[in-house]
Amino acid sequence: MKSDLKGKHCITLQDWTKEEIETVLDTAVELKRQRALGIPHHILQDKTMFMLFFEESTRTRNAFEAGIHELGGHAHYLTPSATQIDHGEGPKDTVEVLARYGHGIGIRNCTLGVGNRYMREMAKYARIPVINMQDDIYHPTQALADLLTIKEKFANDLRGRKFVISWTYAPRYVRPLSMPQSLVLLMSRFGMDVTLAHPPEFRLMPDILEQARANAAEAGVKFEIVHDMADACKDADIVYAKSWGAMMHTPDEKEALALIDKYPNWVLDKKKMDLAKPSSIYMHCMPIDRGIEATNEVIDGPHSVIYDEAENRLHAQKALMAVTM
Ligand code: CP
Q: Relative to the CA of 141, which ligand 1 atom is closest?
């Protein structure tokens, strides 16, 4: 494996080999250790990270901003209205100029049919690494932190673990597909049997499912799709339960919202969590709709690792910046 990952874009982890992903995770563990010991690690002294957000964020933004600071660098928070993007400046001109000032750029753009295309257009012209801070298809920095968390919780013993990603009820707004899609793609590559659970209308993008099946076949693990949340939870090692939208069923947002209301029982409660293994963990990328996607008993219960998972955003994103910038 090429050890030098400088300049490598991270739009999807599908473009990264397993060994490259392991390098990032090993770096995250090392940086986490140094931070715990108070050892300065100014690997990116005087480097600048641009963060262009088309949508708001708590974890992604603050993990990058705190992270680059701890690495000795600096972050610029950008939005379309704080730049000339809202006046029509396109990805080529934006990134050609920003690359003259700084050393990496993260982008969040979750608009369906737009976000990933925008990011790839940026990457075409960028002479600095482009990091996907979530788009309409992928959320690689969250998936990296999730994998790091699972490795920590199961002492790196992942082969044959049952990883469940389940849709949940959450009626307030339609959420992107990027999280479940990144998880079904990644977890099988690291030896886990993946179960995807959702009501029929909430399927993922067909080409993502095809890639997920291919990843599972190559890794020699199972990939199954079920339409019953309780069934999915049975004997699970990891229950990752979060909502996403029915955009593969309908382009109409009102219809997509109404569909969510057909399935108010898709809530992760103690009864369903008790179907998983006693040693199982409950995960959610956050923000979470408390009492709606999962009960507080589960969210604050003994299986929950959601805050460790959120903390690992910091370590994983620092590692990603450290190796690419
Ligand atoms: N999980 C996640 O991406 O959180 P934010 O939207 O707060 O960044």
A: 3
